[in-house]
Amino acid sequence: MRRRSGWALAVQAVLATNAALVLAPMAIMVVSAFKSTREIFQNPFGLPAVWRLENFQRVWVEARFGAYFQNSVVVTVVSVAVLVALGAMAGYALGRFAFRGNDVLYLYFLSGLMLPVRLGVVPLFILMRNLGLLDTLWSLILIYAASGLPSAIFILTGFFRTLPADLEGAARIDGASEWTIFTRIMLPLVRPALVIVTIYNAIPIWNDFFFPLVFIQSDARKTLPQGMTVFFGQYYTDYATLFAGLTLAAVPVVALYVLLSQHFIRGLTAGAVKG
After folding, report:
1. Three-state DSSP state, 236
2. Residue 208 — pLDDT band, cuts 50, 70, 90?
3. Alpha carbon of 61 to those of 51, 64, 74, 150, 240: distances in Å?
4. What is the per-residue pLDDT across 80-108, written as a single tens digit (0 to 9) for each?
5. Cα gap 225→4, rounded to integer Å
6. pTM of the model
7. Alpha-helical runs (H) found in the chain
8. What mean pLDDT do residues 162-185 have?
């Protein structure tokens, strides 16, 4: 019992230290967003003498933050919706149907996890140019959806395979179509997996800087990470404005995790206990 309690305390200490290392920079960023630039350098770790809201106003109005924010929302939401929908259908087919070539097709999708999509940036650029999609949000949406499919199929196929066959068998006896079985019976049962796929792909898409830099040229179509580079030029000494922009950019990601945290944890711990 003493060994177990000591081990539990050690694990909790490691987790608490990790949480502190993650949350401390975020707390400093949020607090700095309410300071002036001079105050950030004079008192970087203290609370502001006066909580300044004008930093957020300047970011939203003067720095075109609203346009960058809207572009990021559109790209992230549409990309995740497409890859979750296609990944769920592919995962259902691979996880619930036994056919010749099932394992080969599954391994083919898994091979996408081993090859970084950035290695194909030149062919992708040529493809988007030939399709007339350069400098459009659709170029980012298609690339993000395609690059997220291997992980989505890998996660969802495993969850679909754990569901009992009696559920769909009873539905087929009652005359339910395959689409009805998929949407009304199977999908609700893999909701934690859908949440895992959503969070796993939404955060990298939201924070990605590489592909917007390659495929987006006009200022009106920039996403948040790319738009943030404008702050370094126009506000290169105004760190208060930069921290305000970073704080606003982090709000949607944090809110997404808070809203879906229960399903996310449930999906990660699925199958971890017996019963």
Report:
1. coil
2. very high
3. 19, 6, 20, 39, 15
4. 999 999 999 999 999 888 888 888 999 88
5. 45
6. 0.83
7. 2-32, 37-42, 54-62, 65-96, 102-110, 121-131, 137-161, 165-173, 178-180, 187-189, 191-207, 210-215, 224-234, 239-268
8. 85
